[in-house]
Amino acid sequence: MDPATEQTLEGARRTRPEMPGPLPEPARDLPLRDRILDLVAMYPEPKSAVIPALRLAQEEHGWLPEEAFEQVADATGFTPAYCKSVASFYDMFRLAPAGRHEICVCTNISCALVGAGETLRALERELGIHAGETTADGMFSLKTVECYGGCGWGPVVSVDERYHEPFTPGDAPELIARLRREAQ
Amino acid sequence: MSDLRVLLDFEGDRRSMAEYEAAGGYASLRKAVAMAPEEIVAAVDASGVRGRGGAGFPTGRKASFLPKDRKPAYLCVNADESEPGTFKDREIMLRNPHAMIEGILIMSYGIGATSAFIYIRGEYRTEFEVLVRALDEARSRGYIGRDVLGSGYDATVVLHRGAGAYICGEETALLSSLEGERGQPRSKPPFPAVAGLYAAPTLVNNVETLASVPFILAMGPEKYAEIGTERSKGTRVFSLSGNVKRPGNYELPLSATLRHLVCDLGGGAPDGRSIKAIIPGGSSTPLLMPEQLDTGLDYESIAAAGSMAGSGAVVIIDDRTCMVQLALRVAEFYRHESCGKCTPCREGTRWGVEIIRRIELGEAKQGELDLLLNVCDRILGKCLCPLGDAMAMPVASYVTHFREEFQRHIDEGGCPFTAHSPLTSLYHHDDLAAIGAAP
Q1: What integer is the mean pLDDT of B77-101?
Q2: Which residues are bridge partners to B116 per DSSP?
Q3: Considering the entire predicted model, what is its pTM?
Q4: N or C terminus: fewer CB in 10 A for chain B?
Q5: Could you give the ipTM of this predicted complex?
């Protein structure tokens, strides 16, 4: 890494606030349909629950197959086509199966100015795939994403929706090795 | 210069209710519910605070546009922070979530809101969890729920996650998304104050704006209005990023200068580099040049310098950077986020990307720079929302300020700056074959 970028990342590590640990995963003891009905009850109009319901369905299936649209449509009172048209608008919904771990690299301007491109290439080399692809063993999907809101602490990489910042090319081998180890 | 801080005037965080209350938290809510609702709106108006999301519209006046006594009415919190370069709402929610929640409750009471909805961008998962905990604490302390602090006012706050779409930061697109639709902007008028969420009167405010409200009531609107400049009151949290020694969020009075933020606090460009250009208010704003560093950070000064204060996101570009690559990245972003509703934006952002890509790759013909400016001109001011403008304005300013650099790409048949520009690895890289065998 060039000395200018190294100096910037050093400064970023000092100004970044401490992030709290994750909350425990919400219980999934109720069937999906009941959890969606709970969402519907939170809003003055049931349509507002469609996007949160799609998220629940995606968590259930790992992505949004036709069955998920049927389930969301049934529970919210809309049609599968409507639910699909909404889902397709938003970047976080997966319309195709993805790897077990989803790694996203922000390549927007602030991250790009401090080496997001190098970070992306390092992850590509480590995984042997390009951004937009999934490894043959189904373990990892790699994506580029637009601004993640970590601009001063970038390059930002998210692993299964948790931010790692700044994430440098040198961090790639360790991350991938750890996730592979944990899968065994 | 004294760096007066209001919102983030402490080290570490005040995430827990205990820490926030120990610092005087929720005293403003107590004060508020003893006032008449219209006095709240009047106090916010008297403070002069303006929307901290991007548009800079006076907050009190915006609240006063809601028709009285028409119910239901809603408050929507815009926590869909996604203008590239902006990460301040995230830090506010992480470090001082109760300030925002207290602000939401005060404002809800002020406008008589039936419910408040916090629309937080889907990617902010940890921040969402911080708010889940903070809202639970506020409910258990009786700040949210029936008959808040004996006032007779029932407060409901719903936390709603987005799912990844920049456009949902635009207030009418946010409302569409919150209603469960594709996040497409709506034609104004009617403005949300008259017909917003579920066609009811709705006030949409940014996280930082609302988080400032408890402090306005605590210190008194007159005192708050003494901070800043004549027309830009109070403090603002500026997000500093890019090629600077100490990037981060810095809260400053609006009377501070760009130089103070970038050079004194941010340390200037790293490793002895020089500053080539400055994005002063998020990626949608036109460039300022290093000789304009003495510009004030207030809305008026930045406008007078030829740009916009926008979201308060200052991005520093040092002398290594190829401006064509940067323009391409900006244009690609807005093309990706264009919802497709208005033709000039849908077609224009695509054209913009194609022309800039040809310039970067050395495939552009003479005259395409003027074509690019022409495309920008055909977008500006011609759409329902400012997303198309958000590409057209910065791209046109990159070409204007660095025309020679763009022209060199065309004349020399490619990018002369690939060796040092930090964006090179995004646009000129080896094919998959060079990456190695897939596992």
Answers
A1: 98
A2: B75, B157
A3: 0.96
A4: N
A5: 0.97
